[in-house]
Amino acid sequence: MRKNILRAGADELSYEIRGIVKKAEELRRLGMKILWENIGDPVQKGARLPDWIKNIVSELSLRDDAYSYCHSKGVPETRQFLAAKNNALGGAQITEEDIVFFNGLGDAIGKIYQYLIPPARIIGPSPAYSTHSSAEAAHANDPPITYELDPQNNWYPDMDDVYKKVKYNPNIVGILIINPDNPTGMVYPIEILKRFVEIAREFDLFLISDEIYINVTYNGARAYSLPQYIEDVPGIALKGLSKEVPWPGSRCGWAKFYNKGRDPEFDKLCTTLENAKMIEVSSTKLPQLAIPKIMGDSRYVDYLHENNEKIGRRSRLITQILGSAEGIYFNKTSGAFYNTIVFRDGILNDKQLLKIHDPAVKKVVEGWVNQPGIPPDKRFVYYLLAAKGICVVPISSFCSNLLGFRVTLLEDDEEVLRETFTGIREAIHEYIRS
User: Fold this and answer.
1) Is the pLDDT of residue 5 over 60?
2) Which of 77, 332, 403, 426 has a CA positioned 20 to 30 A from the CA of residue 259?
């Protein structure tokens, strides 16, 4: 074209979680059976909503008003319900006016970074969830700024690393917390969360807490929500329906603003996000109408507990299979439904491979792994896909210098779960010994 039409930050937009699907589909067309461990869609992995939730949605769909626009910030009654649930926690208090609905958390995340001025940076965890890191880097026209999560310390953040990076980079205006964490399955202890608040207060920052998995905890863990520890620091909590109900196709997420009025710049950001939704008129209405009826039902807490018990059992089974595997750092998960497995330093090299018996598959994969600049963990992931039919995501694609891969804890068929993770264990041993 006569001029360049894309801003520099567009190069930072990537989503390997779905990108690996293209590779897997190519092999499936060659006749391979694929075991999908790449994406966190519980429904795709066999989760079924109970009839009582389906009945709520069905009945709402018969109401004429379910098909109209709603208030730009979201259905008032639903925002009142969510504000009351927040305030029952006893921490930072909000009203319905402090809640704005979006078309999924991806929409909310994109808008938060979109309206920050390019020099303003949000520091987030590494390994990073791609939606956050890509959007932040794209807005800034620069690689994302991250703090390190330590696989040798339960995936807890290195708080000295956080402090130094914030102190010596005056462009950092906010800190992102993902709790429970994707991709590691870690849940933050309250002491770490309070330390984030102390750093934010000292350097006059705001906090963003992605809490999409806040009610997905197990193995004795407890996840603390932002209002329970934020005190007087400005912050935004991000919530949604996609994981805990689960209803990912609802594309229904919401942001809760804390301590508006404490800082004029933070107030401007909140107002801008509200105005952005006014321009769009409103977010999807039907799932908003369903929230008080689903979450207010006496069966909902038991339903969450039952689902979390299932995920916890899978976590423990995966630990039995992979916990003692050689050549890796393995941490038992306690939240969300992912685990990140990291290879120990010096384990991977560009000469390793797995046996592939199908000549057509072997030819395709050799073309992939011989591309220049391919990260060592992506090389392993491609061989795992071709040799075992197991689709995982390389952790180097999560804005990390670590080498490893992310799996999910969503397979409901225990026989398939055992087959999958036994195959991963065998592949690790074969690969590092090849």
Assistant:
1) no
2) 77
